[in-house]
Design a protein that fits this description.
The chain has 123 residues and is an all-alpha fold. It has four helices and no strands. The two termini are 16 Å apart.
């Protein structure tokens, strides 16, 4: 249970970076919300990888390259699911992009991301 809570804390910290980039790009640079979502996901995902590796799952040694490759594979799945969720909620249901991103992030964070990181990336 402690690992799950720490993983969610790392996810929240990664999400803070993600949202900062996304909102900056949309509101200040007027980027399309899906492009901003992608850029935010990449920054937030990188932060989350480092937090999960060093703090949540406490993995060290020479496994970083293989973990990074596994994380990238999982992350590509996350990007696809995130884009689909944000686009569907924003475009079809007319939900604000920040709310769409939040709903999608929470759903992916407690399901897909946690399971894949625990069972595959940092196993």
């Amino acid at each position: 249970m402690v690992t799950f809570i720490k993983a969610q804390a790392a996810s929240i910290l990664g999400s803070i970076a993600d949202y900062a980039v996304t909102i900056f790009l949309v509101e200040l640079l007027h980027c399309w919300y899906l492009v901003a979502n992608l850029a935010g996901n990449i920054i937030g995902g990188s932060a989350q990888f480092l937090l999960c590796r060093n703090w949540v799952f406490r993995v060290s040694g020479n496994k970083m390259r293989s973990q990074a490759l596994k994380f990238i594979l999982v992350f590509v799945g996350n990007l696809i699911l995130s884009a689909a969720g944000v686009y569907s909620l924003t475009h079809y249901l007319r939900v604000n992009y920040i709310i769409s991103k939040t709903m999608t992030s929470i759903l992916l964070g407690v399901s897909y991301n946690y399971i894949m990181q625990k069972q595959f990336v940092f196993a």
